[in-house]
């Protein structure tokens, strides 16, 4: 099956007085219809900037997509005008966020906002749009949908507000949904319900989902494949199953150890020591070396390339460099 979205050699940099922040520095992935790809990493690893680059929402200046291609159905979004992008955003590619208030307007009823979104992209009259809004509220499991449309965003609980945002994102049947930490702010039970909802919607609607998260627990729930990012670069890319069965990158090992156990609720176990590097002054050699328990002498001078360690399992680490190389940096 042909991918719906292909990201090739994406580089997004921010130009500040104190230097160039290479927020995204060589990201490659593709995603097929109906597939869920996880992008995992700590904050500052480049996950959200990758998503914003795809949507062409990088504030410029100071940001700039300096290289790469974002092929949506074979067409490069980086070559589209802002006017063309406005037709694609929300209709063909939608995005949801951690905080629904970033995409919901607090002073308008949900009905007003939904109708407006639907009318922007679809050829309908107002009462058809209202019926579509009711359908969407039902689809995402909001009880008494018709009455609840009259409410303002703050009148919904956190979980219900997240459902409203999802309904809004799905208003025009997008083919790709980019979800940036959509459950991070929710408690564990509600988080599970929202992930279950996304799984169900994907089965019904067949869209591709790019799931951005710092939480491997979320990956385990919903993702088919996963790309782990560190300091703007992918460091491991494979099927979700093999990531859990056989993680290869020392950074992924660290993330695995910091998954909170169900029994100990929020408590973070063994978070990875140290902080992500300053992206304006990356260390020579492997970016992860200063925090890596397995670092060798050559890690301080050689920047590892992406190596194929198994069929569809790629890793950027000198522990595996003797294996066949597929992409050089
Ligand atoms: Fe650790 Fe070296 Fe691998 Fe980097 S290349 S992750 S420092 S072992
Ligand atoms: Mg983020």
TrEMBL record:
PROSITE patterns: ABC_TRANSPORTER_1, ABC_TRANSPORTER_2. It comes from the Bacteria. One of its GO terms (biological process) is peptide transport. It is a peripheral membrane protein. GO terms for molecular function: ATP binding; ATP hydrolysis activity. One of its GO terms (cellular component) is plasma membrane. CDD domains: ABC_NikE_OppD_transporters (cd03257). Pfam families: ABC_tran (PF00005), oligo_HPY (PF08352). InterPro entries: AAA+_ATPase, ABC_Ni/Peptide_Import, ABC_transporter-like_ATP-bd, ABC_transporter-like_CS, Oligopep_ABC_C, P-loop_NTPase. Residues 5-256 form the ABC transporter domain. Its main location: membrane. It is found in: Cell membrane. Belongs to the ABC transporter superfamily. This is ABC transporter ATP-binding protein.
